[in-house]
Amino acid sequence: MKMDSKFSYVPQFLQWVLNVLLTLLALVLSVFLVRETYTIYQLFFTSDGPPPIELLESILNFFLYFEFIALIIKYFEARFHFPLRYLIYIGITAIVRLIIVDHKNPMDTILYSGAILIMVVTLFIADPRKKSGG
């Protein structure tokens, strides 16, 4: 028993370190989010119009930053727990971005689409809000 009480501060200290680092990460991601917003603004108001692929890539990057910041917020709201569905949302957005940016190989695109389908099915299965039959 003495050993347990001797090191009881370790998880609390590590939790504190994690919270501080996640807060710093959220601040850095916020800076990147503002930078991406400025990039989207520049793409929209160029004289020859925005290149569609670059604009779409910037918008998806914006949503990735936004989702990571939302995930960190949910982590603190859920009392230091990452909800699974937010991680899946981020994965889906990242794969959609990958399909848009790198769509030269049709087989890769089909595999990426299959991965999105698996994640959507996982969301459906793991949804705690769905009603149980009965």
TrEMBL record:
UniProt-annotated location(s): Cell inner membrane
Alphabetized UniProt keyword annotations: Cell membrane, Membrane, Transmembrane, Transmembrane helix
A Pfam match: PsiE
Membrane-traversing stretches: 13-34, 55-76, 82-100, 109-126
Record has Ubl conjugation as a keyword: no
InterPro entries: P_starv_induced_PsiE, P_starv_induced_PsiE-like
Principal location: membrane
Its membrane topology: Multi-pass membrane protein
UniProt family annotation: Belongs to the PsiE family.
PANTHER family listed in its UniProt record: PROTEIN PSIE (PTHR37819:SF1)
Name of the featured protein: Protein PsiE
Species, as recorded: Paenibacillus enshidis
This protein's encoding gene: psiE
